[in-house]
Design brief:
The chain has 5 helices and 4 strands. By secondary structure, the protein is of the alpha+beta class. The radius of gyration is 16 Å and the shape is globular.
């Protein structure tokens, strides 16, 4: 029981650290450096674990991971990257990150945050985290609307 409580408190502490002051997409403007330009990719990074029950729900839900396959038609510049560690008790390592997102791993490593709560979603534009949210509800309630806003404003940028 004590080990479970320790793990729970550790995860809550990580969640508190990760839910820091990342600016939401709806707070960006056209001239904001976080706004994607016409050809910039938008990365949606999903931090997951093989044995995470909430992640399994997200992976199977109609509006979860399967919905991202339809994004290529609607939003061809949006790329979804799933960083899936071996278990909830393990840490992420550099091999899980594609080269263009290695800076995320380096930042996490520098802050000793290689086991983020799962699922955690990050929206990344030009090497900047525009949004970071955790939990399955954040996906449809915050992440997808943020992508919509970024894509709508993309067409207005040079």
């Amino acid at each position: 029981m004590r080990n479970r409580l320790t793990r729970l408190l550790t995860r809550l502490a990580c969640l508190a650290v990760l839910s820091g002051p990342i600016v939401a997409a709806e707070q960006t403007t056209q001239d904001d450096p976080r706004m994607p330009r016409r050809d910039d990719p938008i990365y949606v990074v999903a931090h997951s674990a093989v044995d995470c029950p909430a992640c399994a729900t997200w992976r199977k839900a109609a509006d979860g991971l399967p919905a991202t396959q339809q994004w290529t038609k609607t939003w061809p510049k949006v790329r979804v990257v799933v960083i899936e560690r071996a278990s909830l008790d393990s840490s992420e390592d550099a091999s899980l990150y594609p080269p263009e997102l290695r800076f995320l791993y380096d930042e996490r490593k520098a802050r000793y945050q290689l086991a983020p709560p799962t699922p955690t979603f990050e929206v990344v534009v030009r090497d900047r985290i525009v949004m970071r949210q955790s939990g399955v509800q954040a996906w449809s309630g915050q992440v997808i609307p943020a992508i919509r806003i970024l894509e709508e404003n993309r067409s207005k940028t040079p």
